[in-house]
Design brief:
Layout lengths: L2 E7 L3 H12 L3 E8 L6 H14 L8 E3 L36 H11 L4 E5 L4 H9 L3 H4 L2 E5 L15 H5 L1 H8 L5 E4 L1 H7 L1 E2 L1 H8 L4 H19 L5 E2 L1 H10 L4 E11 L10 E4 L9 E7 L1 H14 L5
Parallel strand pairs: 1-2, 1-4, 2-3, 4-5, 5-6, 6-11
Antiparallel strand pairs: 7-8, 9-10, 9-11
Length: about 325
């Protein structure tokens, strides 16, 4: 089944790898890319998205819309794991230019024109999605599904002991989105460390593929691997591409649960903490949380994507 998707992204390496799923997988049709303040400087994120579209051979086919340059109520916090988000490599200047239509406006328009047909893959802070909710109170109801990479399963985060980066950067936006009524699925940082961490041996096998997309992957992934090994994570992490891949390959999901998920907005030490409660007697569930996946199947699916562009199945 082809999934018509919009990817909302703060484009660094794994965001680009998620975009490749939308751009190249046979079960995906990428309607648009929307950019949100997150990993690296905003204008660099825009260039990274355009570079990725060109690397996939899709220049001019998928519009890129500029969104929020800052969180709703906070100062922007840069991530430190990605270099410049494009592998610190000097890529040719993309020919494609961003759209004049703003991200939140594009989100509302595309969903309104195609009610019940659009899946949104949100792999950065949720500022653009929250803004779209404010623009159209029916936005959540008209969206087919919302897949979020964010939060931790009541465990240690990747930016503080309490919080994962995307929820930490704009906790107010995350709170708004989780209360908006989307059909929501969440892929957490907790799951990433368990099932989407690729070792040097796995990355070497990707480098040996020899296709342009595999070379693109290896260049972009290098700073992430270097950073992770510096903080005792033995491999490169792929939460965003896992989120996108699970949308088009739901057979890779081996366990999930309905939970009530809320994000802390008022605590100083707990800013961005994601409470995930399975007790329906306490709170009605508002999201499906992915608890486990076929890790080797995810890796094989991505290797196939880099080998064939995904079109061969």
């Amino acid at each position: 089944m082809t999934r018509r998707m919009i990817i909302d992204t703060d484009t660094a390496a794994d965001d680009s790898f998620a975009m490749l799923v939308g751009l190249c997988h046979e079960n995906a049709h990428l309607e648009a890319v929307t950019i949100v303040a997150g990993n690296v400087a905003f204008d660099q994120q825009v260039q990274n998205a355009l570079i990725t579209i060109e690397a996939a051979g899709r220049a001019g086919e998928v519009p890129v819309h500029l969104g929020a340059r800052v969180p709703l109520m906070r100062e922007w916090v840069e991530a430190s794991a990605h270099g410049d988000g494009k592998g610190n490599h000097d890529w040719p200047v993309p020919a494609q230019q961003p759209s004049d239509e703003r991200a939140a406006d594009a989100l509302v328009r595309i969903v309104d024109e195609n009610p019940g047909e659009i899946d949104i893959v949100a792999i950065g802070p949720l500022t653009n999605i929250a803004t779209a909710v404010a623009l159209d109170r029916e936005f959540a109801a008209k969206t087919r599904s919302l897949w979020i990479m964010g939060g931790c399963d009541n465990s240690v985060g990747n930016i503080t002991a309490a919080a994962e980066y995307n929820f930490y950067v704009d906790p107010e936006a995350a709170a708004i989105v989780l209360e908006a009524g989307f059909t929501t699925t969440i892929v957490t940082w907790t799951l990433t460390l368990q099932r989407a961490l690729w070792t040097r041996e796995q990355l070497a096998r990707i480098a040996e593929i020899g296709t342009p997309l595999a070379e693109f992957f290896s260049i972009l992934d290098a700073p992430n691997l270097e950073f992770n090994e510096g903080v005792n994570i033995e491999g490169s992490t792929h939460p965003d591409s896992l989120t996108a891949m699970l949308l088009v390959r739901p057979d890779l999901i081996t366990a999930s649960s309905r939970r009530f998920v809320a994000v802390e907005t008022r605590g100083d030490l707990t800013r961005g903490y994601s409470l995930m409660d399975h007790r329906e007697s306490r709170h009605a569930p508002n999201a499906t949380v992915i608890d486990d996946v076929d890790a080797e199947g995810f890796y094989r699916a991505y290797v196939e994507l880099l080998s064939t562009g995904g079109r061969a199945g």
